[in-house]
Each structure stands twice: as C-alpha cells, then as structure tokens.
Design goal:
By secondary structure, the protein is an alpha/beta fold. β4 and β5 form a beta hairpin. The protein is 62% helix and 12% strand.
Length: 585
C-alpha cells in the first residue's frame, strides 16, 4: 500500500537532510580547524584542545550516522527514528559552536572576535540552506549556535560588543524567515513530485486496464469472428454448389438473395480484417516502382461491372506515370476510393486520373455524387460513420472504406486531400513520389491459373465436416482429385498411400488441441522432401496467425472465402508449381 503524501514528504525531507549532511559536518570541521589554527597564539592550550576535540568528535559521529543511513536506506515507516538521530547530531554541533563563545572567544583580541562572529554567521547561513528540507534541524543547530554568543556580548562593557550582540540576536529571525521560505519551496516541490508520480501511476494503471480490456475484447472478437466465419464459409461453398444444380426460377431468385447476403457479410468480415491488420501494425510496406497505367487497368476490370450496374460512367485516364509505393497497398487504397465514389454517385460518372506535379504525382478520384458538407469531412474517415445513412442501409456500404483509406495513407506516409461540395461531387487525391526506375511488367498468368485444375491431387484438411464436404465437392467439380481428412493424423495417413507428393495442401489453421495446419504442412513437406504449395484457409484473423502463416511460406485466405477467390488461389498456386516443374525439367 502506498503511504500518504504527507508521510512521503516527511520521509523525503529527512532523506534530503541526510543528503546534505556531509557538506554540513565537513564545513563545520573546516571552519573550526581554520579558526583554531589562526587563533592558536592567543588561546590557552587546554581550551584550544578541548574545543577542537569536541568539534572533531561531533563531525565523526555525524559521518558515522550518515554512513549508517546510506547502508540502511530506511523506508517511510522508519522516518521518525532517523529524524531524531539527525536532530541530535545537529543539536550537538550547535551546542559545541555555542560553547566556543566561552572557550575560544578571546576578549582582548577584536580581530579574532570578528573572525569568530563571521564563522558563526556563515554556519547559520549554511544551516539555513542545508536544513531547509527539515526545519527542526535548522533550529536545533542555529539557536544554540547564535543565542549563547549574542547573550554573552549583550552583557559586556564594550559598546561595540553589545551592538554586535544585538545584531547577532536579530540575525536569527532573519535567517529563520529565509529558512522558512526555502522550506516551503522544497516541500511544495516534494508534494508536486509525489502528486505527479501518483498521477503517472494512475495513468499507467488505467493504461494497463485499458490494454487488458482491449486484449480481452480482441480475444472475444477473434473467437467470435472465427466461430462466425466457420458456418458462413460452409454456407458460401454450399450455396455455390447449389447454384450449379437445376432450380426453379423462384428457388434461383431466393438463392440469389442468399448469395447477396453472404456477399455482404463477407465484405464486412474482410473490411474488419483489413482494419484490424492495419491497427495491429502487421502489414509491411514493400516499396517499389508502380506503373499507374497498369494499376488503373486492374482497377477498371475490377469495378467496371459495378459501375455499369448503376449506369454511371467509370473512366480511368491513360497515364505512363510511375510512382514509388507498395503496389498491393496502393491498389487497396485506390480501390476503396473508387468503390466509395461509385457507391455515392447516382448519375454522371467517376474519373480516376494522375497528374504530374513538381513534388511528384497526384492521383485523383473525382465523382459527381452527392458531395460532403464541410462539417462532415473529418468525420467520414471514422469507422462506421456514414453521412445520410441513419437506417444503416447495406446498399450504401459499411462505413469502413474511407477509414481503411485513412489508415493506408498513414501507413504509406502519403498525404490525403479532400475537396467536396454538397450536390456537386467530391475529389479525393493522394500525392505520391515519382519513381526513377521503371516498374517491372506484370507477370503473365499461367494458363492453368485460369481454368486448368484437372488432375491435381489436393489434400483438404478441416475438422468441421460441413466445410470439409463442401470444399471436397467444390474442388472435385473443378477436376481435382481430393483426399479429405478431419485431423493432422488422418491427413498424414492418407498421404502415406500416395505414390508422389500432392500438388497442393488446403488446410484449416486450427486442427485440434495437438496440431495446427502449419505443423501438418511442414510434416508433409518433410515426408515428401518437396516444397508443396499450401493454402491455409482460416477464420483466425489475429496478427500472430498471419505472421506465422507468412513465415511458413504459405498462402492465407480468411473465411468466409468466396468460391471464385478460392478457385483463383488454388489455380495460382498450382500454376506456379507446374511452372517450377517445367523449369526444372
């Protein structure tokens, strides 16, 4: 339990007093020895030796006390005892200085008297500074040091001594007032420091509580996300298989609605995954030259159908500009801007263009949509914020696209600008650095990546029967030979019957308490002594899983996976494997 602030202040005062103790007793020894050496010719030997011995003994005792304190380093609860020891040392030192008024104060020698008075004044001033942290130590030293000599001088016949006595006694309250003021400043600084420490401790505790709550929330969201993605993934695969059967028009219409709902939920999960990955800081930026013309062509192919469905004009102005950025992240950023522009444009069109400037290349996305009022232009980059969508109409999006854009611009360290006017549309623009080197041409897609999966041997591993069955049926419909298993042990047993390595492993990440999909893939690669392509299809979206999968030289797809995306992933991996085999032969 943390002691109260007054107790801690008192302990800190005592600590400060002990910290200044060496300067105090060393100053006392030097002053007394200097005076004795100067006054040796005029002092009786026994008085000289007695007072010198007393001064050295008190200095030695205070030094031993200081050493004991340093070794002990007492806590707050021991403050009282060590304060008493310090007061005793200061009081004894003050009494010995006061005793000097009778032992070493030569009546007939004014010069030595003035020298001694100067030392008394100096020791009083030094005490006011050294003992300011703890005022009682000042008084137990200053009073017996100054008062006896001042009183003695008041009763002398010499007018000058009486005047000096009055001055000496008046000096005590003056130096006392100074010590009081200094003590208040020191005490105030101690209080402020402890209050700040308490505040900092509270902030750290609140931060730890917030981080713990965030971890619990993340664990809950990860678990909930995984559990929701599993049945949704199975539903997406089963719906795709059902779509290939003979259905009545009414049934096909209902199936289309199901597909639309699945697509919406998949879009939400994917957007949340992108948000969590960006917030987790697990996305590495791989900068290189990016040909904007090729990037525009990819985006046009991706969004052409969506624009045509809304009967708006989508145009990408041709460009040969090359910028330095991350191709994948820049495509995601511009894709979200284009998607947002199409969604909020009812008539007219969307234009994407690149303009060269003195500071690089500015990529602009124009739309003739509803526009954004000035008071909303900052808020639209917040997650789930949408202007004019109080009813949360899914057709108007999820409110995550611009939040992802804002995070991507921060990750890529590029400025994002918005100019918009209600009723007249908007212009989003990002400024990119021009690249000196030309972008590498896009690798041509192997013919197998498009439609040739026939004959490929694929091992499918998932501990959920519905997903395993749907995945098997889907791959078989594409011409693959499938070996399905519900666990790592079963997969290894099925693989042992093969005469050659499988062409691909498609596995869930979690296969039970004793194994993961990555461990299974590593075992299979060791068994066949080949770098077998592997696709991890998982509902886990945590940053740790993503890092582990990428480090294991595997491709990752997050459930729910649209069948088209699964087909592209499988075909791409098989095409790369066949290309490697062709080069090897």
């Amino acid at each position: 339990m943390t002691p109260d602030i007054p107790d801690r202040i008192r302990a800190e005062r005592i600590k400060s007093l002990y910290a200044s103790m060496p300067a105090s007793y060393l100053g006392s020894v030097l002053a007394s020895v200097g005076y004795l050496l100067a006054a040796y010719p005029v002092l009786p030997a026994w008085q000289w030796l007695l007072w010198g011995g007393l001064m050295l003994s008190q200095a030695l005792w205070r030094h031993l006390l200081w050493r004991a304190y340093q070794r002990r380093q007492p806590g707050v609860e021991e403050t009282g005892r060590w304060a008493l020891y310090a007061l005793l040392g200061s009081g004894v030192s003050g009494c010995f200085w006061g005793l000097g008024a009778w032992l070493v104060f030569p009546v007939e020698h004014v010069g030595y008297q003035l020298f001694y008075l100067f030392l008394i004044a100096s020791m009083g001033s030094l005490s006011a500074i050294a003992s300011a942290a703890y005022l009682p130590a000042f008084y137990v030293f200053a009073v017996p040091t100054i008062v006896p000599l001042g009183v003695w001088m008041l009763f002398q016949d010499t007018p000058m001594l009486r005047v000096l006595g009055i001055i000496g006694l008046g000096y005590l309250p003056v130096i006392g007032a100074f010590a009081h003021n200094l003590s208040r400043v020191v005490g105030g600084s101690f209080r402020l420091r402890f209050e700040n420490l308490d505040l900092l401790r509270e902030v750290i505790e609140r931060k730890e509580q917030a981080e713990e709550a965030s971890r619990e929330k993340s664990m809950f969201l990860a678990a909930a996300s995984h559990d929701l993605r599993q049945p949704l993934h199975a539903l997406a695969l089963q719906t795709h298989l059902l779509e290939k059967t003979e259905l009545a028009p009414t049934q096909r219409k209902l199936l289309g609605g199901m597909r639309g709902s699945i697509h919406s939920m998949t879009g939400l999960f994917d957007a949340l995954l992108d948000m969590s990955r960006l917030d987790a800081g697990v996305i590495a930026v791989r900068e290189g030259p990016v040909a904007l013309g090729e990037l525009f062509a990819r985006l046009e192919r991706e969004f052409r159908r969506e624009a045509e469905a809304k009967r708006i004009d989508l145009r990408f102005r041709p460009t040969d500009a090359v910028v330095r950025s991350d191709d994948h992240l820049l495509a995601s950023l511009l894709g979200n801007l284009v998607s947002n522009a199409i969604r909020y444009t009812r008539q007219g069109g969307v234009l994407v263009a690149a303009r060269r400037t003195r500071r690089g290349v500015r990529v602009e996305v124009w739309d003739s949509g509803c526009g954004i009022a000035p008071e909303n232009q900052r808020a639209i980059f917040k997650a789930f914020y949408q202007v004019g969508n109080v009813e949360r109409d899914r057709s108007k999006g999820l409110g995550l696209g611009l939040a992802i854009v804002e995070r991507l611009t921060r990750l890529l360290k590029i400025p994002l600008e918005l100019r918009s006017e209600p009723g007249r549309g908007s212009r989003f623009s990002v400024r990119l650095a021009a690249a000196r080197a030309k972008a590498a041409p896009e690798k041509p897609v192997h013919p197998a990546a498009a439609d040739s999966l026939a004959g490929a041997v694929v091992i499918v591993v998932d501990n959920e029967a519905e997903i395993r069955a749907a995945m098997t049926a889907l791959l078989e419909s594409w011409g693959c030979q499938v070996l399905s298993a519900s666990s790592a042990a079963e997969a290894l047993s099925r693989a042992a019957a093969l005469t050659r390595a499988p062409d691909l492993v498609v596995s869930d990440y979690r296969l039970g308490p004793d194994a993961t999909g990555l461990q299974l893939i590593e075992r299979l690669r060791d068994e066949f002594n080949e770098s077998i392509p592997a696709l991890v299809v998982t509902g886990d979206t945590g940053a740790e899983v993503l890092r582990e999968v990428l480090a294991g030289d595997c491709t990752i797809l997050h459930k729910p996976v649209q069948p088209e995306a699964l087909q592209r992933g499988v075909a791409t991996l098989l095409a790369a494997r066949r290309a490697d085999q062709d080069e090897g032969s």
